[in-house]
Amino acid sequence: MPAPTPQSTTPSTPPTTPPAPGMCPAFSAAMSVLGKRWNGAIIQTLGAAPQRFGDIKRTVDGISDAVLTRRLAELQGCALIHKSADTTTGRDHYALTEKGAALLPALGALTTWAEEWAIVPHPASDPPEPDHDTPPIHPTTQTEEDPTT
């Protein structure tokens, strides 16, 4: 019996999050993966060629080892990428699956749209997202008057 392919050994469904009322469930499922920080950049990086962990980390500037590890596992779980060992060096590398490569035209179109419409972060008004998966901490609203005023 042939060994299973990397695509067949991982689940092919994204994490389940209920779609907003009236939203297409397929779109909601896609955005639950693609909307996560770093995932699009990782997919674009692997669109150029299969790469090792360190190569991806150097290309996706600012991502931590821990977050990259989680994102790679998530993308493998969605069958968008697969990990395999290089036959000559034995070192692991990551590559897009057919399903992952099918996203490249959409990511390219999104990049073109962002360039045309100058969608760039505004540091003063848009703080960067945290480099972890925990919910953000929001400051509490002060309900009492400051006694020093």
Query: What portion of residues is helical?
Result: 25-40%
Major beta sheet, specifics? Answer: 2 strands, antiparallel
Question: What proportion of the residues form beta strands (DSSP E)?
Answer: 5-15%
The order of strands across the largest sheet is 1-2
Count every helix, treating DSSP H or I runs of 4 or more residues as helices.
6
CATH topology of the domain at 24-116: Arc Repressor Mutant, subunit A
Ranges with pLDDT <50 over ≥5 residues? Answer: 1-14, 135-149
CATH architecture of the domain at 24-116: Orthogonal Bundle
By secondary-structure content and strand pairing, the structural class works out as: mainly alpha
List keywords for this structure.
mainly alpha; Arc Repressor Mutant, subunit A; disordered N terminus
